[in-house]
Amino acid sequence: MRFLSFFAPRQTAARAQGSPAPAQQPAFASHPSVDPGLAASSVDELLAAHAALLSRIKLCYGTDRATFEADLLGPIRNFADFVNLLPATADNYFSEVGGLFRLGLEVGFFALQGTDGHIVSGRSTISTRRHLEPRWRQATFLAGLCSEMHRTLSHVVVTDERGNEWPAYLSPLSRWLSQQRSPRFFIRWLAGAQEARALGLFALRHVVTDQTMQHLATGNTVVVPQFLACLAGMPLYREQSILVELVKRATALVIDRDLIANANRYGRPILGAHLERYLLDAMRRLVTTHTAWAPNQDKSRVWYGKDGLFIVWPNAAAEIRKLLEEDELPGIPKAPETILEILLSAGVLEPRSAGEALWNIAPPPGKTTIEAVKLAAPEILLSAHLDPVPPLPTALVARAAAPTAPMAPPATPTTTTPAAPATPAQPPAPVQAPPQVPSEAPAQGEQLELDVGLSAQQPEPVDPASNATAPGIPVFKLEAPMRLNPRVRDALALAIDSMNGDARAAIAVTVPAGVFVPLDHFKRSNVDLPVVLRALAEAGMAVARKASRVDTVQHELAGAPVLGFVLKPQFVRGLDPADFATLQEDGHAGA
Fold first, then answer.
1. pLDDT-derived band of residue 431, with 50, 70 and 90 as boundaries?
2. Residue 416 lies in a domain
3. Residue 300 backbone class (left: φ over 0; alpha: ψ -120 to 50; beta: rest)
């Protein structure tokens, strides 16, 4: 029997009733629409469009038809009635018509699929687990289904043809459109909307009935609290929740798959659209469980003073990334610069200035200055802390007096240089003599004396540590535009960073036209080459004879020809583009 027969009676009834005739639009609408809008769809049409996925959900749930319809298909119909054909985002993941409904189904399916490999309530008896397991599985699917429903209340405004606004707190969208007798609806996305996941709890009653909630709470006191905590985005940190972990992992997987599947996404500003929640969750978990994140402790990553809350950077980024990698979340960036840009674009961090994100702080006792990021509000991180954390009575930001201290050493050489001619000492003479040897051609006796002086001073200049920290040695760092694909950015940043170490182990090397980066490096980083070339072309970062493309060239590395591309020098901090300008204008023949 076909799966569509589950709701065939409802389809027949819908056809019998017929669609309501559209009301005539008045001459003067309160909010006239300028776009054609979206044609509303019925619940049965939405389910029919996803019949294959619904069949997989039924097979994964592993129950008979009646149980599946009561436990899952009923809430699915309610969810379709609530969101209709709304997209999930304006121009990012699941932005197509009906994207929010598909997002809920896929997250619910993958979260439900993940329950097969976990034992819930492992400390309970066998009879208790037999009673709780079906409730855990049902709650996991419903949590995934409704995980992004909060967007309907915070990110979008829906109106009908006459400009009337949908009261999302009061009625599902499909039912409201039927009452308004409007066959179409119009969407207006709110600019700069903040993610408030707890709003989804107010829309939950339109999808999950009171009877279902009572069924989940029967015989236990853990399923419903974990279910609601997952929807609110505030997991209970005192105990591990498999439900929260499964939904979080399924959401990251589904969104990452959608971004990869849509080739037209590459090069567009998708940075941080769905990763902010995971980064914040990792930071809150670290501040409650990791000893190095205990606020205001010796060598801590977190410092809370009267001028705000700061996190030592980039030390904290490595621990955040490690924790998320242990969660096996796909699409998590590896470079601290990418994590920093995500948190900045989400408004979680407060930059020091328009072009500088890091702050210089001097934690107690104030002898050393370190770089850190500043949270926009301390409650973002400290809300997860069990005990209240009082701020330090002093400010943490290093004042302008701190940078003036290094100016004192240059003053001492200027005072000693006038004294050198007055008292001609023997050691300074050999130091100044080498640059004069080839120009003045001194006598043989003077050369012998010079050689002896240099041999006596030889142990002093040969100091690898001083050479490594010399201010004249540049530090190379990638400076890519924010629209660059995050995976390409991370791999490219690692290649540029390798130029700061041993030259024999460097991945990227400078060539006359810029910086040569081998394509094999991206293969080892599990980034598809078409994605790399497309992202670089759209960002205009690679040397090319024609716009919107990337020229691949061969360069010899370790004695073997290697295929790669040439990165423009203006995207690498530490390089002077003027040194490469002539060759770039000549068509990059030097590459």
1. very low
2. no
3. beta
CA distance 588 to 149: 51
Which residues constitute the domain of residue 85? 3-14+38-259
Question: CA angle 561-565-569, nearest 5°?
Answer: 120
- Please answer whether residues 152 and 104 qualify as being in contact, where contact means their C-beta atoms are separated by less than 8 angstroms: no
Q: Which of 347, 370, 403 is the last residue of a domain?
A: 403
Paired strand residues for 309: 304
Provide the token pair at 224. Answer: 């419903």
Residue 364 sits in the same domain as residue 330? yes
CA angle 170-90-245, nearest 5°?
75
3-state secondary structure of 475: coil
Both 97 and 231 in a single domain?
yes
- Residues 527, 570 within the same domain: yes
- 8 A C-beta contact, residue 512 and residue 580: yes
- Give exposure, 443-463, as e/b (b: 16+ Cβ within 10 Å): eeeeeeebeebeeeeeeeeee
pLDDT digits (tens, 9 = 90+) for 30-62: 444 346 788 999 999 999 999 999 999 999 999
Examine the domain organization and report whether 513 and 368 are in the same domain. Answer: no
Are residues 251 and 281 both part of a single domain? no
Quote the number of domains for the chain. Answer: 3
Same domain? 184 vs 55: yes
**Which residue is listed with tokens 């309907």?**
152
- For residues 506 and 103, the model is more confident at 103
CA nearest to 283, candidates 238, 339, 335? 339
Q: How far is CA 574 from CA 132, 474, 477, 483, in A?
A: 60, 5, 7, 22
Domain limit, last residue, from 387, 403, 419: 403
Is 249 found in the same domain as 295? no
Which is nearest to 356 in space by CA: 391, 313, 396? Answer: 313
My answer on whether 282 and 238 are in the same domain is no
CA distance 51 to 4: 7
SS3 of residue 370 by DSSP: strand
In a domain, 447, yes or no: no
pLDDT (tens digit, 9 = 90+) per residue, 165-204?
A: 999 999 999 999 999 999 999 998 888 787 888 999 999 9
Q: Is residue 482 in a domain?
A: yes
State the Cα–Cα distance between residues 241 and 250, nearest whole angstrom: 14
pTM of the predicted protein model: 0.51
State the Cα–Cα distance between residues 116 and 62, nearest whole angstrom: 11
Q: DSSP secondary structure string, 7-76?
A: GHHHHHHHHHH-PPPPPPPPSS-SS---S--EE---HHHHHHHTHHHHHHHHHHHT--HHHHIIIIIHHH
CB atoms within 10 A of CB 324: 22
Alpha-carbon span 68 to 72, nearest angstrom: 6
